[in-house]
Amino acid sequence: MTARKEVVTFTNGQLVTIGNTLSEFKLKGRASLGRTWLIKHLEDLNKQFNADQLATQKNFFKTDEDGDFIYKEDKKTLILKDGYTMDEAQKEFDQLVNEPVSIEISSYSARMKALFHALEDYPYELEGQTALVYALVFDQFDKAYGKGE
User: Does residue 78 lie within any of the structural domains?
Assistant: First the structure.
């Protein structure tokens, strides 16, 4: 019987917000170490997401011989390659933004469980974007750990 892998899953479009928001939480000890580890992995995934976004842009929009984008006269608007529509490009970008990405947390279980328990008992009031990110992250930890304890 193989050990169950514990993972947290978010979408590409959530990575930066989650990382930025988690960095604001008041945590100490192993929970803080867990948060730092998780933020590092979120940053790595976001670098990949940015590279994927750039590759997608280069599929749909014209570039010069140096690979730089060619803009319309307003110097802000990219020019679509022949045969593509803005709707097609937008659909590709939306799929990329909404694509799920998972982080295996099993090997850092002690730190991650400490972070989960610190979030579970978080004593500070949360509101707005911070509360939404808290709920999102907590839900993922609860799926990873909540049923197994």
Answer: no
What is the SS3 assignment for 136? helix
How far, CA to CA in Å, does 130 sit from each of 63, 111, 113, 125, 127?
39, 22, 20, 10, 6
Task: Give the mean pLDDT of 105-133.
Answer: 92
Half-sphere exposure of 2 (CA within 13 A, CB side): 4
The pLDDT tens digits of the residues spanning 100-113 come to: 999 999 888 889 99
Q: Is residue 80 part of a domain?
A: no
CA-based nearest residue to 18, from 106, 144, 139, 121: 139
The residue segments making up the domain with residue 46 are: 7-58+101-148
Task: Read off the tokens for 85.
Answer: 């529509």
Q: Quick check: 5 pLDDT over 90? A: no
Residue pair 10/100 in contact by the 8 Å Cβ criterion: yes
Residue 86 lies in a domain: no
Its pTM stands at 0.88
> Distance (Å, rounded) from C-alpha 62 to C-alpha 5?
43
